[in-house]
Design goal:
The chain is mostly helical and 179 residues long. The chain has a single domain (7-172), classed as Ankyrin repeat-containing domain (Serine Threonine Protein Phosphatase 5, Tetratricopeptide repeat, Alpha Horseshoe). It is 52% helix and 0% strand. The relative contact order is 0.09. Residues 165-179 have low confidence and may be disordered.
Amino acid sequence: MQITISDEEEERYAELQRTALDFARHGNTESLAEMLRHGLPVNLADEKGNSLLMLASYNGNLETTRMLLESGAEVDLRNHRGQTPLGGAAFKGDGGIVSLLLDHGAEIDAENGGGMTPLMFAALFGREEVVRQLEARGASRECRNRLGVTAGLMVRISLRVRGHGEENRGKFFTEGEPR
């Protein structure tokens, strides 16, 4: 038996998908949860590969992120640029979402395009609290990006640029590391 879908039905389904993506982006948790209960795929993604979880976490919607994870969203699902939700949250500096993603098994040193890890994004964009948080949870300073720069060097440069010089050396550097 073959099922035929009209153009109108197909457009309506596409509209529902766009609505769900907007709900994730804007933190409309209850409406999105209702759509999931009615069969919307939890790993739905836009034309760039940004999943519902990526959109919710990147836009700082903690409760929507939590609901999607509890509904079975794939925590490390990458977009078409190879970026993960954790990489996006580290870039944005959202410690609450970083913690939630890690608690749900996000790969802490996941490569997010160009060899960049969440720790590198946090350092590059001056998200010092997230740098500390990722390091406390086991992020590696040894990972290298495509240019061969280590996460550790990025952290050290970021802290120096932001005024955390020698007076804070003991907090951020270990003995034997280059200055």
